[in-house]
Structure formats: structure tokens, C-alpha cells
Amino acid sequence: MGVSWSTMLPGAGAEPAMPDGIKKISDRVYSLSEPKAGPPEIEIVFVHGLQFSDYKDAFWRTWIAGVKDEDGTEIFWPKAWLGDELPRARILSLSYDSSAWRTNKQGLMDAYVVGETLVQEMVGMAKVGQHKNCPVVFVAHSLGGLMVKEIVCKAQGKFRNDLKFQNFLQNIGGFLFYATPHDGAKLADTAAKVPNMGEMVRLLGVINKELGRLNSQFKQIAAEEFAGKWEFVVVAETHVTEFYGISAMVVEEASARHGYKTFYSVSEDHFGVCKPKERTNTSYMALLQLLELVTVGKSLTLKSEMEDLR
């Protein structure tokens, strides 16, 4: 049971070391890249998915590229590629108890509590969404997309009378969902019957009142309070995933698509969908497209522009 979804890719070997430069802001919020000077022009928040091993390093391990550098070094693409291209971006990653297994130390928290905690640490401690003319973009893999919805719902609901949370909501610009099971996953229905499955697995079931409530509430917020203000991009898997002796499509197309207009399918399994092998892969280009949509009318500073000023 000590294998994680993120490291069960074909050819996966020893665990990579945590990339340099990551700074802890709070228990659940980590800084991957910060502007060297001045306020950020955009805030990009990465959110990992379900884990079958210790979830505590998933906030960076999930985003290791599907290829190594020339010297054999693992590529942590949010920092190595995105941080390199956007020097004035603030790039963060969230960590939360997403364990698939329930023990006396993990797999105990449900989506409501996780969402409530994450949004308070993001807004209250990391000050996300508090910079003027600085859009916030969420990049989420699998279950992480549902956690993002919980974050938004808690900000709009429980904390809506707090100015900091109002600023946060107003500054949200878009969402990239990598293989998020918006309508559940059939595989999760089977997994939920296994003894000692964590609380998060139950959220992923196809017939699930909690997931239905979450989708309905998020859809209402997006349609009524932020109509036309939020951009959505979906990237879905097309290959079956092999793990624990099972070969299956983890998130079906319909569940990933969920009616969102901008939809891409990539030739990867569930784990590889957020692990681009090069900057021209659709899975990476889709994020750049989202950032373009979110910043229409604004001017993001690119690395090439910074070099021209030297």
C-alpha cells in the first residue's frame, strides 16, 4: 500500500528529492516561485489529487515532468518552466490530507473540513488574492479540482462577509482541471468498498450526494455571481491506467468534460496527464492558453522582456 498514484508511471523509479527553492508559508501552503522585486502580476495555485502513500510530498511530486533534464535531473515544471517564463508570477502549491487509506494519522478529513482549512490558510496566511489587478489561477489534478471547488464555496459562503475573502473571490480568473472527476469515477465506487478507505475516496463516487451538492453550489456561484468572469480549461486522459493489478480508465471523458467549453484530451494515463514531457505538449500549452485568457487587457512580464531591459 506504499505506492502513490503520482509515482506509478511507467518507468518510475526511486523517489526524487524535493526541488530547491520551495518555501513553506504555512502547514498547507508552499511557495514555489516569487517575483524577485515588486508585487506579483498573477498568482498561480497548484492543487494535487488523491494519494495512495504519504500525501505530504504530493504538493511537489505530482508536478514532476514526464521527462528528465539533460543531466538526468527531475524537472519540477511549475518552477523550471512556468516560473522561468513568468518571472513576475507568484506560484504556490497546496498540501492537504488526500490519503486514500484511513489510518489513525491520515485519511480522516472530509472535503468540507479540508476546503475550509485550505481557504483560510491561503487567504489569511499566504495573502492569496489580495493584490490589486493580480488574477488568481488554480491548476488542479484529479481530486484537487474538487478541493478547489470547496475552497471557492467556503470563501463565498462561510467567509463571504470578510473583505479579504471578497477580494480573493473577485481576483479569481480561471481554473485548469487535469482529469478532475467532476461527476465522479466508477473506479472510486469499487474502491470505496475496500476496508480502511479514506474519506476523500467517498467523494469521488458516481452516485454521491456530497459531490452533487458541491457541483450545484459551485455552478451557482460561477453562473450568478461571477458570470463571464471565470475561465475554465479541461485536460483529460485518453489512456487506461495500470496500478495495483488493475487496468482501467480512471476518469471517463464525460466526467472530466463536465460541460466546460475548452476541452483537450492528451495521450496520457491518469498520472501522466499533468506531467508534460516538453513545453510544447498540449498539457502544458493548455495552461499557457488559460493564462492568456485570464490576462486579456493586462500585460504579463515574460522572461524575454526582462532580458531585453538589461
UniProtKB/TrEMBL annotation:
Main location: endoplasmic reticulum
Key words of the record: Endoplasmic reticulum, Membrane, Mitochondrion
One Pfam family per UniProt: DUF676
Record keyword Mitochondrion present: yes
Domain DUF676: 44-186
Keyword presence, Nuclease: no
Record-linked InterPro entries: AB_hydrolase_fold, DUF676_lipase-like, SERAC1
Compartments where found: Endoplasmic reticulum; Membrane; Mitochondrion
GO terms for cellular component: endoplasmic reticulum; membrane; mitochondrion
Listed Gene3D superfamilies: alpha/beta hydrolase
Name of the protein: DUF676 domain-containing protein
